[in-house]
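A quick aside before the break. I want you to see a complete sequence-to-structure record at least once, exactly as it would be stored in a machine-readable document. Don't worry about memorizing anything.
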Amino acid sequence: MVRRGTMAVLVALLVTGCAAQQQGTAGTAAPGVTDTTIKVGGVLTKTSASGYSTKDAEVGAKARFERANAEGGVHGRKIEFTGAEDDGQDAAKGDAAAKKLVQKDQVFALVPVHAPNFGGAAFLEQQGVPWFGWATGPQWCGTKTGFGYNGCLAPKQGAGSQTWWGRQLADLLGGAAGKSVYVQTSDSSGSKYGGTTISQSFTAAGFELAGVNSGLPAAAPPPDWLPYVNKIMTSNGGKPPDVVVSVIAGTKFNVGLYSALKRAGYKGVLTDATSYDAAILKDPASAQALEGVIAAPMFEPFESSAPEIAQLKQDVEKVAPGTTLTQHLAIGYWAADIFLDLLDKTGKDLTREKFLATGNGSYVYENAGFGRIQYPKDHSEPNGCGALVKLENGAFQVAKSMKCFDNVPLK
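That is the input. The structure line, written in tokens, reads:
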């Protein structure tokens, strides 16, 4: 009788233990997810040899997550933001950072990822871990896990390629007929590919392509800009082009190039994707070099009167009072915003598999802050949206508000 009783107790304990184990498994939806929290962390280029930094994206993401948490979270879960790792603009360090976040820190997703040479893409794709940020390089394209807030900026031949930059500038200049454009890139893979797609954006808008130069070293600004300036100033049949497009990551590069062009007497339009940065205005020499430059951010400018921008400013002020608003900050904010929207649409029963299925199953999200995103389409092409900002008399002004255009097949 004693042995039967003992066996009964053991069986009961085993059944209870199994039930508890099953209940615990069911309650753990995915790594980084509990009934009340979702853990995420990012990878940024906080430091680099050239001085280029995307560290402000961390503030932007935190601001958006904090508002979501203040509103009760997403389906009752609040975002536990661990902050962002620094890849030092080194692909190997980016890969190590991604592995640390997934394997050691057990994050559900990587938000934001804003690093030109990010090296963790293959690992995240293999592990089925979602990641959100600025899709500046080819590592974002063709994945099922990487969600750039602007789509894929490095489409393959035949896939959709953006036309918005050229068309927005053509509208600003009163048309592109008879106007020429020269594109300067660095020798990095992302910059060279950007030169290809951006060149087509301008030719699709009706500009004539005067030339593309990808010989500029990406590691640091050259000691002498004259060889590059001479090519530009004679590229349009021996004359300067009407528009010079800089596809270079780093304020020091653009300040050097633009200053040299102005010294050479260039009077045309200067435009790039990175010079919309209020921090630049604190340096008189940089502000002077960038005076008149037309920047092309892929989000609605901070000077806009759109309600979404007022909300962004309010969110940032709450978490980091007095913070200077930068392009990198906005990128972190909008990447986090899309992640939150996708969480909401996935529902309370959250796993990575269900999250990715929602994101890759005719997912569409429109917001005046960044335009429109459509997945899975935008895994292979840009979202086609952007704005223009001009620096005039030491202050940024909205030249063209956010607008989306149809892409064209990349030649």
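Two observations worth writing down. Residues 1-28 have pLDDT under 50 and may be disordered. The radius of gyration is 24 Å. We'll return to this after the break.
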